[in-house]
Amino acid sequence: MSEHVTSGDGDLPTPDDGTPAARTAHAGKPPIRLIYVPGLGDRMPPLVHLQREALRTWRALGVRTTMFRVRWSSDASFEERLDRLDALVDQFEQRGERVALMGASAGAGAVLAEYARRRSIVAVVIIAGKFLEPEDIIKPVLEHNAPFAQSLSAVPKLLEELGPEDRARILSLRSARDGVVDDEDTLLEGAVNETMRVVGHVIAIGYALMFRARRVVRFLREVVTD
User: Fold this and answer.
1) Mean pLDDT over residues 64-80, rounded?
2) I need a labelling partner for 158 at 20 to 30 A (CA). Which of 117, 124, 169, 222 fits?
3) Closest CA to 166 of 101, 215, 104
4) Distance (Å, rounded) from C-alpha 190 to C-alpha 160?
5) Is the pLDDT at 13 greater than 80, yes or no?
6) How far apart are CA 207 and CA 220, in angstroms?
7) Are 114 and 82 contacting, i.e. CB atoms less than 8 angstroms apart?
8) What would the pLDDT profile of 97-122 be if each residue is shown by its tens digit?
9) 63-90: buried (b, 16+ CB within 10 Å) or exposed (e) per residue?
10) What is the DSSP string of 124-192?
């Protein structure tokens, strides 16, 4: 396992197509659409707002972004929400866009599951991901977030379907010490695993969205041109 150390409410939202610079970047090539899936705080307006604002800064890098909220505390099943994410991916692919996925914390499980389902996805990025070992999560959290509990059971089996070439298209960003998720859980065998020089779970997510955008976009373009 390699590792490197580096320093809308709707399900089908109006796309954030970005600035004119973003629209004209890499003219002649299909645009990259990055769908971002947040973690368990996806029903907390302040957290959602901050993540949306961070994603807006990616426009200048020529990447179109959209947020998809699983609504982890809803009554829907993980499979139902995955179907909805799949419909969103299909919508953008039908428009001729190349779709990449990025998931933070619990959202990592959703994007990995969707990737296992739809291999046309060009790349996947996970930030401080929690997609293994449900026994590490206290029972009240799992009971309050049923789709999350279901994802922790489903994703490990789905990962078995991803071969070396599939895993090479996954970038996993983690903090030097998470404090919420076991550090080993944020590593994915065969993926490009990178440790950011920050400490903390929430801090790692914010840091990645604000200060690792260029690294992520570079990874997406490298994978797309392979």
Assistant:
1) 96
2) 222
3) 101
4) 12
5) no
6) 18
7) yes
8) 999 999 999 999 999 999 999 999 99
9) bbbbbbbbbbbeebebeebbebbeebbe
10) EEEES---S-GGGS-HHHHHH-HHHHHHHHHHHHHHTT--HHHHTTEEEEEEEE-SSS-GGGG--TTSE
pLDDT in the model for residue 23: 43
pLDDT tens profile 15-32? 444 444 344 444 568 999
Residue owning tokens 């994978």: 223
Tokens 């944020």 correspond to 186
Q: Which helix (H) or strand (E) holds 195?
A: strand 192-199
Angle between helices 213-224 and 201-211 (to 10 degrees): 70
DSSP string, 83-105: HHHHHHHHHHHHTTPEEEEEEET
Q: Which residues contact 170 (CB under 8 A, 6 or more apart)?
A: 112, 115, 123, 124, 125, 126, 162, 188, 190, 191, 192
**pLDDT tier at 184, thresholds 50, 70, 90:** confident
State the helix-helix crossing angle for 146-159 and 78-94, rounded to 10 degrees: 70
Distance CA 38, CA 148 (A): 12
Count helices and strands (H / E) in the chain: 9, 7
Q: How many residues does the chain have?
A: 226
